[in-house]
Structures are given as structure tokens and as C-alpha cells.
TrEMBL record:
This is ABC transporter domain-containing protein. Residues 309-330 have a biased composition (Acidic residues). Residues 331-342 have a biased composition (Basic and acidic residues). Pfam families: ABC_tran. The keyword Endoplasmic reticulum does not apply. It is a peripheral membrane protein. Residues 1-221 form the ABC transporter domain. It is found in: Cell membrane.
Length: 342
């Protein structure tokens, strides 16, 4: 039996559609998730389906009562109230005796824990406890994946499973959900990548098919349309790589640089010829060095010039020769006398 139905429903905010043209039917015992990226209108869609936010277009009908569990900013727990005091207050609002609070299952919550001390998981549990007191046909809760670790998410989904097993319909919002835990998915488009307000209602199997490698928050139809466009940049990647292939062509001037460098290297060769010139000049400079012995000939000629000094005795020979002639004559006369004496 259908407990909730929406026909052409939509919500607009500041001339911008958050969701539009939503057609949805929720059966008793079903879990329907509203998923999408931040800013896609998940909370507004949830409040519209729970009839807590007036729709801008279309109609939403609920058979029975739709009650909000925890919705941040809407049904936050009172900071100073304890868990038990929250239960007592809700019973009083429903016209029921406060003494019944002691018999209400708290699912592990400490009765004396105050609202400001609750963790995100405990806030979700308290919201389910309070919502269940009204015996509704539909329970709606926001952000079932916000601030919860894997263990807490598992326990929360376990509690939701108990509610649906009892015939309640459950509406949740999340960025992403496990398809095995839901009956259908209201998939909101990413307002940054697609037309704002576009919505696709999918079965759990259809939603699961969109989770494989596709951007989070895009609808299945948008994914099919965007697939060639997204594949194009991948094919264009080699084209982008073309400039990288062109890099060797750009490197050609670098290869030419050695050629230019060759001319630069040739300059030292020319300089070598310039250096060689002094080497050729060395023999020329050596010739004066060779002439130094010739210049020393006057030094060697000094002995020659000394010959006249040696000749001075020769010049003195006439002086010395006169005694020799006298001795020779004396010897000759003596010899003759000896011969005549014989």
C-alpha cells in the first residue's frame, strides 16, 4: 500500500529550482534515499516529501503521518535536556503521560546524557526514538552518513531495518548510500555540472550501476549523456601530450646549439692560430738568442786583442835580443881563443 506519493513536485528557492518534476510513490516498509552532492537540495526535498516544506509545484500526499527524526537545524535536541527529558517532553506534546517515558526503548542511549553531549550517531538514535512515539506511517531523517564511522552507520541502518520491518516507510538523505539497504533512490543532479533541479528516480540496481567510476551526485541520464564528453578529454590527453612530442622539435634548437657552439669552438681554433703566431715568432726571437754567441765574439776577441799584449814582449825582443847577441859574440870569441890556443 502506498503511504506517500508525489506528482510533479518541486521546490524553488530564489528563482532557482532545487528539485522539480518529481514523481515518486513510497510503499509501506520501503526505504527511499535522496542522494546528491552538497547544494543539490537533499534536505529541501526531504522536508517537501515529509510535508514540512511547501512545494512550489505539483503535489505531495501522505497516507497517515510523516514525522521528522533528526534533521540538523530543524529538530536538533535541546542542549540542556537529558535524553529522558526529551522523551517526557515529546510524550507530553502527544498528550500521553510522562510516566510512560521509563518504558520507551532508548537503543543504548544513557537517560541522563544531555543534548549538548550527544554525538552525531546518538542524535540520530534519539531522533528515531522521539519520532517513533507518534506511531507515524513515514519517518524522515537527514544526513545518515554525516559524522558517523562505519560501525555507527551499520548500527543506524540496523535500527532503520527494524522500523521498515514493522511496516514503516523511511526516507533518508545522504551523499551516497549502499544500494543493498534501500528500495529506491531519488538521485539529484549536481547544480554545478548539470541543470539545477533535475531529478531521476532509480531502483537500487539502477543506482548501483551509476556508482562504478562515475562522478558522485550526477543522475544516470546525465552520466550517459556525459560519458562521451568525459571520454573526450581522455582521448584528448594524447593531443595534449602532442606538445610533449613537440618538445623534441623544440629541442631541435638545442641540437642546433651545439652547431652554434661548434662555431664558438672554432673561435678557439682561430685563437690557436693566433697562439701559433707567437710560436712562429719564437724562432725569430730565438735568432737574436743565437746571435748572442756572435755578439760574444768581441768577448772572445779580447784574447786576440790581448795578442798585442803578448806581442809586447815580442816588441821587447829587440831589447832582450841585444844581450843575446853580445853573449853569442862572447861565446864565439871564447871558442876561437880556445881553438887558437890549441
Amino acid at each position: 500500500m502506498a503511504v506517500l506519493s508525489a506528482t510533479g513536485a518541486g521546490v524553488r528557492h530564489h528563482k532557482r529550482w532545487l528539485v522539480r518534476d518529481l514523481d515518486l510513490t513510497v510503499e509501506a516498509g520501503e526505504t527511499v534515499a535522496v542522494v546528491g552532492p552538497p547544494g543539490s537540495g537533499r534536505t529541501s526535498t526531504l522536508l517537501m516529501l515529509a510535508r514540512r516544506l511547501r512545494s512550489s509545484a505539483g503535489t505531495v500526499a501522505v497516507s497517515g503521518t510523516a514525522v521528522l527524526a533528526h534533521v540538523a537545524g530543524v529538530t536538533d535536541p535541546e542542549p540542556v535536556f537529558t535524553v529522558l527529558e526529551h522523551v517526557e517532553e515529546r510524550l507530553a506534546l502527544l498528550g500521553r503521560p510522562r510516566r510512560e517515558a521509563g518504558a520507551v526503548p532508548l537503543h543504548g542511549l544513557e537517560p541522563g546524557l544531555r543534548g549538548r553531549e550527544l554525538t552525531p550517531y546518538q542524535k540520530q538514535v534519539l531522533g528515531l526514538v522521539l519520532a517513533g512515539l507518534a506511531k507515524p506511517a513515514v519517518i524522515a531523517l537527514d544526513g545518515v552518513d554525516a559524522g558517523l564511522d562505519a560501525r555507527e552507520r551499520g548500527e543506524l541502518w540496523g535500527l532503520l531495518g527494524e522500523l521498515t520491518a514493522g511496516g514503516l516507510a523511511v526516507l533518508v538523505t545522504a551523499r551516497e548510500v549502499d544500494p543493498a539497504r534501500v528500495s529506491r533512490v531519488v538521485h539529484l543532479s549536481d547544480p554545478q555540472a548539470a541543470e539545477p533541479g533535475r531529478v531521476v528516480v532509480q531502483s537500487a540496481e539502477e543506482y548501483a550501476a551509476t556508482l562504478n567510476g562515475w562522478p558522485f551526485g550526477a543522475s544516470a541520464a546525465a552520466l550517459r549523456e556525459a560519458a562521451p564528453q568525459e571520454a573526450a578529454p581522455q582521448e584528448a590527453a594524447p593531443q595534449e601530450a602532442a606538445p610533449q612530442e613537440a618538445a623534441p622539435h623544440e629541442a631541435a634548437p638545442q641540437e642546433a646549439a651545439p652547431q652554434e657552439a661548434a662555431s664558438d669552438v672554432a673561435a678557439p681554433e682561430e685563437a690557436a692560430s693566433d697562439v701559433a703566431a707567437p710560436e712562429e715568432a719564437q724562432p725569430e726571437s730565438a735568432e737574436p738568442a743565437a746571435t748572442e754567441p756572435e755578439s760574444t765574439e768581441p768577448d772572445d776577441a779580447e784574447p786576440k786583442s790581448a795578442e798585442p799584449n803578448d806581442a809586447e814582449p815580442n816588441d821587447a825582443e829587440p831589447d832582450d835580443a841585444e844581450p843575446e847577441e853580445e853573449l853569442t859574440e862572447e861565446l864565439a870569441e871564447k871558442t876561437e881563443k880556445e881553438r887558437s890556443g890549441q
